[in-house]
Amino acid sequence: MSYEEALKYLQSLMTFGSQLGLVRIKELLKLMGNPQNSYKTIHVTGTNGKGSTSAMIASMLTASGISTALYTSPHLTRYTERMNINGEEAAPEDFARAIDYTAKFVQQMIEQEFEHPTEFEVVTAAAFYFFAEKNVEVAVIEVGLGGLLDSTNVIIPEVSVITNVTLEHMDRCGNTIEEIACHKAGIIKQGRPVITAAQGPALAVIRQKAAEAGSVLNVYDKDFFSHTSGYDLTGQQLELTDLKHELSVRLPLMGEHQAVNAALAWQAVSCLGKRDERITKQNMRQGLESTKWPGRFEVRRGQPTVIFDGAHNPAGIKVLRQTLNDYLPGRAIVFVLGILRDKAISEMLTTLLTSGDKVIVTLPLSERACPAAQLVTAIEQQKLISAPAYVAEDFSEAFRLACQLAGAEGIVCVTGSLYLIGVVRQCVARQ
Description:
Layout: H1 3-12, H2 23-31, E1 40-45, H3 50-63, E2 68-71, E3 83-85, E4 88-89, H4 92-111, H5 119-133, E5 138-142, E6 159-162, H6 170-173, H7 177-184, E7 194-196, H8 200-212, E8 217-219, E9 224-232, E10 235-242, E11 246-251, H9 256-273, H10 281-289, E12 298-300, E13 305-308, H11 314-327, E14 334-337, H12 345-352, E15 358-361, H13 372-381, E16 390-391, H14 395-406, E17 411-415, H15 418-430
Parallel strand pairs: 1-5, 1-6, 2-5, 6-7, 7-8, 13-17, 14-15, 14-17, 15-16
Antiparallel strand pairs: 2-3, 3-4, 9-10, 10-11, 12-13
Helix pairs in contact: 1-4, 2-5, 3-9, 3-10, 4-5, 7-8, 11-12
């Protein structure tokens, strides 16, 4: 199977939709010999920040000389981004071989009259196999959706990380913070430590689940802390502390939320460091300072300055707006905006936009994209900006127009969906 054939195969699996549950993935992995059990894992979930936190954990482990895998989703540009070892995404031929290998066991399932695995389940199983084949020591696994019934929740991690909990995926995980927190807390395993930045009712649920599992719970702003002592558009200076240790680091990721994520990642790696002398303060600092996680307040200096941010729910949009206000106070922003139709669109718009901003609405590269005209109507009805919103059906044209409106000294921010910023980043890279 070539890389192109692997992509076509995965595309064909889209007909099976997105289905929560562990029956299919467990059967598939059993047929494959349960490759996920051949290395240690760290499991990361949360409403926002789980990808950034996972990337920071993986970077620290790699800097410590530990062969480290990172599994994330969705990808910005290429499927191969989802399978990463020691900072390098899988080669297309390796990705294709892992998919081809997994597909043979999918066929066995069908022949044995099991329900067909979904696209995400097949990619997850292929990643677990790929990491085992490459003899990684530790794999950092980001949850796809929720936690309890997510396809990744077949591992027994060394430590579980829950970044935060806000309302999301209410059609899948429940209508209240408590119900959603139950799904997130589903990654907690018996006797394994838990690190979280959750607050309020969500924290109460996580605390109860951790107690039931006999797991030690470390809570941000109670057991460990972060403090930003300075920042600019290249990063921020952090002081990370817990009851026994401290770490000073220059983090290349911006925003108060990334300071919290860095503290979570530091605590997770510190848990492994208790049993691995390769994990030192110097190596953790080096790992954090070399973290790469594109598309999350990613700044490209130029004329104009362009910011890519994958905020795609109200909590993420709130963080983005706050970060823009902190790093670029008083500056009007030209937004290239595309949102999926199943998101809390009205809340996202009112949180993001101020009267001096300008907006070019376009379509994310997804069948779930909200029609541009619908977004424009929502913006105009709520009178969120003083200038008319523009529509560009083509995201390349949307970016060109945004740069024209911003001018050489202006700011362009591409946001609303990872399915938008990925394709626009490609357009910029080709210029």
